[in-house]
Design a protein that fits this description.
transmembrane helix, metal-binding, 12 helices, HAD-like_sf, globular, 16% strand, alpha/beta, membrane, hydrolase activity, Rossmann fold
Length: 269
């Protein structure tokens, strides 16, 4: 029997902002970028949150990021992301997304994050969210530094290429699998599976989803402070009590996600 998977876009689907642009300030504080680059990234982040990004905007964003990181030390970038990951990413995560991830994992589905952002950013975020796999843009590296070129752009049809490669490698059934994304640029990704869902869709994707009778979800709630406090408290408690709290939290998320999952299934049937 083939394995099923749930493929999630990252930006504006699992988190509220652009993952690539979110680390602008920590990169500035470490001396990787100047103040002008941070301001430019902040403005781009504002536009991204306001209206998403079409193909032209994504191409401009790719060029901006590639130019900005030229000459950066890859190990230093990984270190900055690792040190600031929770402070930067946790406030942006949609709680509805974590519930849905929990529901898919409870059913034995592989959870895969597919993003146009760089691998060095996407991979640790995927681990933080409990994903089984991540696929992202891969920058060209020479002598441990970014050259400003791109080896693989995980965008548009590139996402489908990555999904198909993973499906062949892991024995995944794309026809029975799920995908969640927010942008019209992710139409190929959504169309590549049997169970697509538009999440926080831009105007063009909402129209396309309506024509295809695809479900539409709205994610707006960030992960609660209480959830993060419970997680930190569990780490400080004796092993038995910590496990109990962790299990209770996982059960709550799984139940909430199951309700969403069942609702989607009923709508498709």
């Amino acid at each position: 029997m083939s394995q099923l998977a749930a493929f999630f876009d990252l930006d504006r689907t699992l988190i509220a902002k652009s993952s690539s642009l979110a680390f602008g300030r920590p990169f500035y504080e470490q001396g990787l970028v100047g103040r002008r680059a941070v301001l430019k990234s902040s403005y781009a982040q504002f536009l991204f949150q306001l209206s998403g990004a079409d193909h032209q905007q994504m191409d401009r964003l790719r060029k901006h990021l590639a130019d900005m990181c030229t000459g950066w030390d890859v190990a230093e970038v990984r270190a900055v992301v690792a040190e600031t990951l929770r402070d930067i990413v946790e406030p942006m995560v949609f709680s509805e997304a974590t519930e849905l991830i929990a529901a898919h994992k409870a059913r034995g589905h592989r959870v895969v994050i597919v993003s146009a952002s760089g691998q060095e950013v996407v991979e640790p975020i995927a681990k933080l969210l409990g994903a089984d796999h991540s696929m992202a843009t891969q920058m060209t590296v020479k002598d441990g530094k970014y050259t400003g070129e791109v080896d693989f752009y995980c965008f548009g049809e590139g996402k489908v290429e990555a999904m198909e490669a993973l499906a062949q490698q892991e024995g995944l059934d794309l026809a029975g699998s799920y995908a969640y994304a927010d942008s019209i640029t992710d139409l190929p990704m959504l169309a590549a599976v049997g169970n697509p869902t538009a999440v926080n869709p831009d105007r063009a994707l909402r129209k396309a989803a309506g024509k295809r009778n695809w479900p539409v979800l709205s994610f707006s709630r960030p992960v609660s402070l209480r959830a993060r406090i419970l997680s930190r408290t569990a780490q400080q408690l004796p092993k038995g009590r910590a496990a109990l709290i962790s299990a209770a939290g996982s059960l709550t998320a799984a139940v909430a996600g199951t309700i969403t999952y069942i609702a989607l299934t009923r709508k498709r049937s």
